[in-house]
Write a structure and sequence with these properties.
About 50% of the residues lie in helices and about 10% in strands. The protein contains 35 helices and 16 strands. Helix 32 links the parallel strand 14 and strand 15. Helix 3 runs antiparallel to helix 4 and helix 11 runs antiparallel to helix 12.
Length: about 775
Amino acid sequence: MPETALRAMVASLMILLTACGPVLFVPEYELTRLGTERDGISPEDFDDIAAGRLGNLRQRLRAVPIERQSVLSLNLLCELELRADALGEAEACNEKFLKKAGATPAARAITNRREALLHLAQGRYEEAYNYIKGDESDNGVILGKLISLRVNPSNLDLMIPEIELRARSKQPQPSFWAATLFAEVGRCDRTLALLEDPNRRLLADYGLGTQPASANAARPTFRLDLVKAFDIGILGNHSIAPAGNVHVEFLAAKCMATLNRTADARRHLDRLLSYPDIASYRTVHWQSLQLMGRLERPDNPAAAVDRFKQAIDLIEASRSSIASDIGRLAFSASSYAAYQELVALLLDRGAFTEALEYMERARSRLLVERLVGVQGKKTHDSSRPRVAANQAKLLQSDEFLNLQPSGSEALKAAQAAREASDAIARDAPALAVVSGARPLTFSEFQPRSDGDEATIVFFPIRSGTDAPQWHALLIENGAIRSHHTLGSSPVPLGSFVTEIQSAQDDSYRESARRLYRHFLEPLLSSTRTSKLLIVPHGELFAVPFGVLDDGSGPLIQSRQIRIVPSLTALATLRRDERQQPPRVLALGNPELREDKKNPPLKAAEREVDMLEKLFPRTAGYETSVYKKKDATIERVLNEGPNTRILHIAAHGKFEPRKPLQAGLQLSDLAGKGELTVEILHTTQIPTTLTVLSACVSAIRGDDQDQDLTSIADGFLSAGAQSVVASLWKVNDIATTPLMEAFYSALRDGNTAATALRIAQMRLSQDKQYSHPYYWAAFVQIGSDIRI
């Protein structure tokens, strides 16, 4: 690579207006139109940069094969992908850029900063910081401080002196950094003081304003599309959109709304939403729509609904471009509030069906996407080639529309997208969830019912840092019967679960009565069904509903209960109900490296031996039992796919901050025997029933605002129709008789939910195991199968 090109790539790009017209400027080196063209930036590209037509530029650069791209043009394309929140494309581009640039220290510095921005955009703060630490550039230092605040807000006190120092500067760049950091720590008054300062003129000179791009082009050289840490898209230090700066405009609007300057906030949001190239800044675009919806809600709720819906469409487009599971989980957490606000508004307006559809779009997205992938792999019917062809058409149309074509071209692309979407929905409704065609509707995901099962869907809505306000919908016989505003929980849910785990203490009883009255009595007072299908959310996933006391005793005595993470997931699970061969695979007491935290599970061996007796070969079953060193991850991965019942009695591990690393400890003396959720997401184990006789195998964490996952979800995503798993560290001595009663009832023809209820009631009537600590930990998740 020529030295001049490398210096041009590494240095900060900015737009200058000179007597000779605009040029691209980098310290110590100017790229004239001629020089730029030599490095792969055409005069047309140059004009688009000067005018801020980023959509046009991105479209053209994407059309150039990688082998024909220069290092400079490829770097520019990567920045444009990042700016448009095409996160998957940006990550792939970054890898190609590093390879093309030769992995030099300078090129690696650029890719590391871009990786930090990619991870920050997804809410993956610690990983973002790992990419940026050691970067002593101004961008790197400020980006590192912002990430540090996101990871640990208590770092604020340590940063205030530096923020104040930068705030004293009269230069636009450090002033804007200070304004952004003040907003991050809740000091919007200080933010606006800097943005509106008549001497600094940050908002006046660098906001979008009301002038056309040609009039704006004569402003000073500083451009602020700066660190996409501030929402988020960089090209070195400076903007490639001289027509205006969307981040300055949005920062002002956000802080004005926070300080109740509603009219001013709306004025700036109007500028953003009418900005011709706003689609090239997807995060700012959906956040502007969300904020405008919030401001419009009091006086024009119908308009607010439209704003929130548009924001969610953009959020889901961004999410679909993220390749990694952990990235999708983190991104869901950062954008969850938009769903909450829309659901709250729809519930207020009595639009219960539509509210439920958006609840479903907000919950268990990763599980649903994985389930759809598994079901797609199982599809062998004649519709499969048509589905694949229509998915390709839809992707092509969506990518073209993202590049902002002209009016007639856009109409043709939109029509093609609609036709492909409709075709996918007809041929493979489940694939519509993740293909971008459309989400499932209530008529498609409503639970099947034999007339004796009611469905209760819970959803929390949080305002700021207040406790979540719970809502619930009651569904019977294919219709939403009622909506209930339940308010905040009368008992800390985590404390209730802790009380139950104290086996010698009955203090849980009062909490069990209060929680029943709060969460269930308003709904169950109007239904006489004996079966409940419960769709929890957040902390409610940890609650053993069978323990809640209706006044006559635990609910398990009068109702059968099963759990599903989402109705969409359940609808996807039930699409393939073929039985596996009558094979049982049981693993117990895997042999681990010496570990005081994971002692041997002697009772687990008796548990799996019991299965061999209950499902003998003489009765037509093929039962394989593996214990100690033979209970390996390879047994599960190799033999599990052809198994009807998979039973694992082992230690479980759950880490709230690393949900994809939750898993089961199987035998491997080299320390590589963990069967994690991450591994399960890459394999297929399509059992009829998987039983996880392991600690915390159903735990999903307690953050209301995250798309959480559990070990049980991992097995569902791998193809299991039904999973039985535990909510806490179970007593392995008590688990053996519970499992024996469960499997006996299952073998006698009962469904999984009925069999579990029979087993739990039997144990609860045994004086030795009557406390719910012993019998209430296990829950049945998914389809209510028979074996």
